[in-house]
Amino acid sequence: MNVSRSGYFNWRNHQPSRQERRKKAIQERILFHYYDSKKIYGAPKITHLLRQEGYNIIERTVGLYMNELGIQSTVIKKFKVSTTNSNHNNPIAPNTLNQHFTTTAPNKVWVSDITQIPCREGKLYLANILDLYTREVIGWRLYGHMTNQLVLDALNDAYQKKRPGKGLIHHSDRGTQYASNEYREKLEDYGMVASMSRKGNCYDNACAESFFSVLKKELIQGKRFKTKQQAYDEIYRYIEFFYNRKRIHSAIGYNSPIQWEEKFYKGHSA
């Protein structure tokens, strides 16, 4: 092997330095957080989690360690601009939200949207309602149709869960479902103020649409669900157990939506 006897025994008897032990420990934690997030988290989020554990480390070092380990995060691309069927004669609400995507408390502004979910067994549509402050998905429904009932049931789900006070702004696009008489009447019953995007400008509803971009990149990743039941089960687990309770967001201080909401109410009850 062209290795000297002394060189072999020096290698065999080598004791890892303190720096080497620290690097190994950090890399083990990087691997844990990477696979615990289903290969979603990249260097920024993992750096934050490592600092919470007491490691004094910068993002660049974490990125280098991830490269050495041969792992990388799921990259979230900007959401695709999509079109909405706004060819109807129903009343259109003014754009009250007007791209003001910050608010001061939970249950002040909700945003809603619909997307199609790929499934071999047939068409599926997902309607969601997201709280703009916490980023929590507070109401959602997955049906094989895109009728008014889809969005109505998602709205009812959110209302029963949060019971917000009157005056909440509900923002959506100009789709026929959101402009329907049934939906507008339900918003009025709940004391909510309807707001709708401008025609042809889906960036007015960017927060709702960007959630779908995250969902499709992190969960679906180009695959097509075999059955509707499989689609429901996997989306349920993603939203209720990972996205709402565990997935940290840089926009809300590297907290999960549930954690951010709990911190808000804890701070205002003191």
UniProtKB/TrEMBL annotation:
Biased composition (Polar residues): 1-16
Any GO molecular function: nucleic acid binding
Domain Integrase catalytic: 102-265
Function: Involved in the transposition of the insertion sequence.
Name listed for the protein in its UniProt record: Transposase InsO family protein
Biological process annotations from GO: DNA integration
Region called Disordered, residue ranges: 1-22
Organism of this sequence: Texcoconibacillus texcoconensis
